[in-house]
Amino acid sequence: MPLINVRKRKHELRARFKRFRAECPPELKKSLDKRLFERFVSLEEYLAADVLFAYISQPIECDTSAIIADALEKGKRVAVPKCHKTSNEMDFYFIKSYDDLSPGKYGILEPVPERCEKAVDFSCGLCLVPGLSFDLQGYRLGFGKGYYDRFLSDFGGTTVGICYSKCTMGELPRGTFDRAVDIVLTEKFSNRTGG
């Protein structure tokens, strides 16, 4: 498939899944997020992890606030990303609470470097990966900036993509630099892909 068609198809799918999420009734979203949380915190990989690389969710995304709170309560080290202002790269910083965050690039809450320790070891740990959609092979459709594909290319731990089941597909269009996650988790099922 020519690259231009992959880009076009990804653009169409982004619009479709953004629309689904934007139109999801608040009570349904709350219920889906609760089931996702319950399934995530019961994963053996999560139970065994000392370090969780998470993301601060936006209203259109699967809610991660309960997962982050649970990890901190259980004594896990939690690192969240800070996007570079001049490139599509990000660094992760360990946080102790949401008090360590302030609005950053794109208005998303990010760690304040002066208050947080920068993560430097990406050889292990569990990484929670955002996505508008995931397919059954673990490939994701992100927001199109490439931050996570760059990060995942050097991450040595286990990766989990969380997504609503209605936003999963049998197969997504993918490019050369797209990276698969090890586990796709929805409110209904989990699929271990081998990344």
Describe the protein in words.
With 195 residues, the protein is of the alpha/beta class. It has a single domain, classed as Rossmann fold, CATH 3.40.50.10420. Helices cover 29% and strands 24% of the residues. It has 5 helices and 13 strands. The longest helix has 21 residues, at 3-23. The two termini are 22 Å apart.
Structural class: alpha/beta
Mind telling me which CATH architecture this is? 3-Layer(aba) Sandwich
N-end to C-end Cα span: 22 Å
Give the tally of structural domains. 1
Sheet-strand content, in percent, reads: 15-25%
Please tell me the overall pLDDT. 91
Placed side by side, the strands forming the largest sheet appear as 6-3-2-1-7-10-12-13
Instruction: Say what the CATH topology is.
Output: Rossmann fold
Strand segment count:
13
Work out the radius of gyration.
16 Å
Helix fraction bin:
25-40%
- Run of helices and strands: HHHEHEEEEEEEEHEEEE
Low-pLDDT windows of residues: none
Q: What about the largest sheet?
A: 8 strands, mixed
Count of alpha/pi helices: 5
- CATH C-level: Alpha Beta
CATH superfamily: NagB/RpiA/CoA transferase-like
Shape: globular
